[in-house]
Amino acid sequence: MTPADVLRAYWRVALLIACAVAVAGAVVGWAAGGWGAAVVVAAMTGGGAVVGAYLSRPHSVAEATAALEESRARGYAEGLSHGMLSAVAVYEAAVFPKTPGGVRPEERLARRADAYRMASADALPRAVRVAAAAALEALDGGDLSASQDAVGKLFTAVHEQTAGR
What distance in Å separates the CA atoms of residue 132 and residue 138, rounded to the nearest whole number? Predict the structure, then answer.
């Protein structure tokens, strides 16, 4: 969604509100003085709503645009965190295959390179990056229990980062 889309959505909602206010004004005007009063009150209330929307537009659009940019950045970081967790899990499967000889050395090295490439992403949150580095170090060491513990800590770091909105 671009800032132009935010502005377009703002105006659509503002006009919908103005129409609702104008209808309510028409009902009140009709009850108070007939059809002539209904037209005058509807025009005044609807016009007032449009003027109010126009005057509050810069502030509202700026807030919506800032919220949009913040959610984009957070979503990108969350996506990288989950991708990092996936890359480490795939590397873990290559380091400790379920069947002996199930993973060729070239495949293991390729998975390792992918995991390290994901861990070096600049937008990756610091807590996830530190946990990923510890997991990769444990996996490179080849100790199954230490690796499982480190990958578990990485999972917890990713979960805390994404659930702590």
Answer: 10
